[in-house]
Target: UPF0434 protein SAMN05414137_106222
Amino acid sequence: MTAPAPSPDSSLRSLYEDPTVVVASSLHRARRQLALLEPLLDRAAVSRRRLRILDVGCGDGAATALLAQRAHGHTVVGVDWSRMALERARARGLTLVRATLDHGGLPVADEAVDVVVFSEVIEHLVDTDAALDELTRVLRPGGSLLLSTPNLAAWFNRGLLLAGVQPVFTEVSLKRIYGRPGREVVGHLRVFTRAALLGLLRGHGLDIVAVRGAAYHDTPRVLRPLDRLLQHVPELAADLIVHARTPLVSGTGLPGTPDTAPSAEDPMPLAPELLALLACPVDKGPLLYDPQTESLYNPRLRRAYAVVDGIPHLLADEARPVGRPDHERLTGTAAPAADREPSSPARPA
Model:
């Protein structure tokens, strides 16, 4: 009897926890993407609002650190599933959450985020539609999605296809490279042209604000000047960078939260602005912090999520059940009589 084949999900997770797999971002592309955020930050400064920015798929945190530096004073949270990537990102002093787009979704309430950064992630996903549905769910009306992904129709890929060579950025195996230039398997499942990517985003109700290109960090040295030149033509650029926006709704207030100074003494190990943003990945309701067990607790489902080294692990399948005594301790209320353990019957005299 043959063993069942591993699911695509388990194969990808094993790939991304492999220490030899690249989880770093191109800082050149990150800076070009960050330029699209500048007008949003300028408007927030004028209105004295603090933006909530979620970097979904933050990897090793290199690009997130650039973002946090530029968006100083705003709430910047990096999200990733990979323990290995988060361990590297934690060394950069970032605010982080372990979570995923699937299996319950992001641990954030509806319309709670002003900006989602989604860099070099969509090409790794099996279900791009579910991912975009989840990202638009957490974005407020008029919220911004900053997305980047490799361009299938990049100038060098057009030449490779004419020569009968597998294009860069595409994979036919998760174990090794076959038929294309490059040295690293990176798990790309979806590849996009400019037209296909914009069509997908519009199909999910997003308005396109701007499209930019970026050069490829691993282009052979002799071709780099040409690659840098063609990044100004998005249809031919190595990478596509898109600023998309959820539709505005009449009566929507200003983005972000009021910019108030934080308290001088804060005994909580998790920042208050992070606690205000996070929600249970299952019912999307608020969570209580339990310092005694270092966990975040959902009193409605009586499930707790661990906080490890200051990083909340908000994965639906890793929640632990919480008993009645801890529930009462955390909520300050006694459980309904129906939920209590039955008392032993009295012995006859």
